[in-house]
Here is the input.
Amino acid sequence: MRAVLVALAAVALVAVVTIGLISASSSSDTGGSSGAQASAPAGSAEPVFLDGGKDAFEKRLASERGTPVVVNKWASWCGPCRVEFPFFGDQARKHKGQVAFIGVNSNDSDGPAEDFARQNPVPFPHFRDPKLEIAATFNAVQAFPATAFYDRKGELEYVHQGQYPSERDLADDIDRYAR
Here is the structure.
């Protein structure tokens, strides 16, 4: 009897999580306009993960033309990614409406990625990139983490391979390349 109750509780939990993810994905804007970003509600710990692969990512970048874009490739298992992740949240809040931020969760499992993002909320969505296809579009397959900077025209300006040692270093690159 206990095994049946545990199984039912597990099924109920999966259903609640699935409904929440579907709701978050359907209520978020995967297109957008200049400066628009899909994100979890302010103060919410529910991350927004977007599907659609390379095509959806490129469509999102195109929808942001007129606004510089910073793309952070990360994985929950990556220690350096974990260190710099809060820098991106802080910078996204400081540059709200001026610079768009997008996360790319690459070569990761959904459960650990969602847990990490829930524990470390940032005000921007993340694309799932299990096979590094999105990362390949900005030449960031090898390094974890990696950060790509796109200008207002949607042109790739610069790719920083590896961890930012400080938020100041990230802020300097945002000022330099996200224009």
